[in-house]
Design brief:
It is a single chain. The radius of gyration is 24 Å and the shape is globular. Helices cover 50% and strands 16% of the residues. 38% of the residues are buried. The strands form two sheets. Strands 1, 2, 3, 4, 5, 6, 7, 8 and 9 form a nine-stranded mixed beta sheet that branches. The chain has a three-stranded mixed beta sheet with strand order 10-11-12.
């Protein structure tokens, strides 16, 4: 049945969600790729429902295999599926994703395009490509404000990744729909099984640290059958609090990027009170949070959206801090945790670029060296610098125009106006090119509401 290796291996971890899995497998059986070009590995993680029978029912329609194990969590399940994969390309997909017909083909094309690019520019390395697909949410059980808010959360994730010049961060890795080479996955060590939440973020940290090149591939789309209700969202925030402490302990230089750092710095008085309750008096805070949760339907009924949203985010913040408090039991310990910065000691690559040589030349340099930081000049005039950003990918050519518009536009225009070398006809032509590129990029970002 499995005579030759397929081009892609799709890994689906699942736990007692047979109906969702059946829908996912049905969608995978309708792909534009030929049946023998991809295999599906379903990792049943302690399943006690009809999952094994569902998989057997699809054996005539898919190259599908069932791997059964005791319940060990999604990270261990994905690692188990990756180890059993026969293809060099791994596609990770959740069991509640209904892949569109071009899903597999888009993932294959993304890595084929990366391979072609590496033939022209070997320094880029196609083996380190990570393709992140699009997951538009299907919200059938949610209603009203909560449904709209949930849709907004999901769409914001992918809208941000689709912006021109987006610089990917570890938080952009979506475990429900991404692909990478098997040897690269094994090289970084796979998923960390100690994480029960944010295991994709933690993998993203190591991938970017190993020089991964993230790419958003909207054509690799699948509808996400989101079943979360309000109670599940609040439980998830608690789990995220626990996971963020794990990330901060394992990667101290990333502590400023964690949600707790932003909440700690910018919270208003009501949020600070909720944080105090979460740490000092959870026996009082928990029933209070459950009581105020009952106010949400009333606020929606009277159409007081602003107060509804404020209360919802307050509840989410409370349960997030409750998760943090599981490991950092006091507010003082939390403050010390956020204040402590541990530098990795890893040497940073600072690249100096001169825009007088043209934007294309500067972009080529960024792609060639992939620096942590850049210092930008225009002939003899300094323009500015971009410092290392913890948890973000190394800089590359695609980021430059966005950086010029968002961070360095004013000093660059000042340098252009003052530089005497631009009186030369060739320099005037380069000046025109720089200005037109700035305007073009600015219009793209304005169209997306980012400027």
């Amino acid at each position: 049945m499995f005579s030759s290796a397929p081009r892609a291996s799709i890994i689906i971890p699942t736990h007692n969600r047979a109906d969702l899995l059946e829908n996912s497998l049905a969608a995978l059986s309708r792909q534009t790729c030929a049946r023998d070009e991809y295999e599906v590995l379903v990792v049943a993680d302690g399943c006690t429902d009809r999952t094994p029978q569902i998989v057997r029912d699809f054996e005539q329609r898919l190259l599908v295999r069932l791997i059964e194990q005791k319940a060990r969590g999604p990270a261990a399940s994905r690692n188990r599926g990756a180890a059993a994969a026969r293809s060099d390309l791994l596609i990770f997909m959740d069991d509640d994703i209904e892949a569109l017909p071009g899903f597999v083909e888009a993932h294959l094309n993304a890595h084929q395009d990366a391979h072609q690019t590496s033939l022209m520019s070997p320094h880029l390395g196609d083996q380190r490509q990570v393709a992140i697909g699009y997951l538009p949410p299907l919200l059938k059980i949610q209603q009203g404000y909560f449904k709209a808010e949930l849709r907004h959360w999901w769409e914001t994730i992918f809208q941000r990744m689709s912006e021109p010049g987006h610089r990917f961060q570890y938080t952009d890795l979506v475990s429900g729909n991404f692909s990478l080479r098997k040897d690269f996955f094994q090289y970084v060590g796979g998923f960390d099984v100690e994480y029960r939440c944010h295991e994709d973020f933690e993998l993203g940290i190591r991938l970017l640290g190993a020089g991964a090149r993230f790419e958003f591939v909207p054509q690799a789309a699948g509808y996400h059958h989101e079943k979360s209700d309000l109670q599940r969202v609040l439980q998830r925030k608690y789990e995220e609090g626990v996971a963020d402490v794990q990330i901060g302990q394992q990667y101290p230089d990333l502590r400023p990027t964690l949600l707790m750092a932003r909440l700690h710095q910018h919270s208003l008085l009501p949020s600070r009170i909720l944080k105090l309750l979460a740490f000092a008096w959870p026996a009082t805070g928990d029933p209070m949070a459950n009581y105020f949760m009952k106010w949400l339907p009333f606020l929606e009924k009277i159409r007081w959206y602003a107060m509804w949203q404020r209360l919802l985010y307050g509840l989410m913040g409370y349960w997030y801090w409750r998760g943090v408090s599981e490991s950092l039991s006091t507010l003082r310990a939390t403050r010390d945790f956020l204040a402590e910065r541990c530098r990795t000691g890893r040497p940073r690559l600072l690249l100096k670029i001169d825009l007088a040589e043209g934007i294309a030349a500067a972009e080529a340099m960024l792609d060639a060296y992939r620096p942590d930081e850049i210092s930008v000049r225009l002939n003899r005039s300094p323009v500015g610098s971009i410092r290392r950003q913890p948890g973000a990918e190394k800089l590359r050519g695609a980021h430059l125009r966005s950086i010029l518009v968002r961070d360095l536009q004013a000093p660059l225009l000042n340098a252009l106006a003052k530089d005497p070398d631009f009186a030369h006809p060739d320099a005037a032509e380069r000046l025109s090119e720089l200005c037109s590129e700035i305007l073009k990029t600015r219009k793209l970002q304005e169209a997306r509401g980012r400027v």
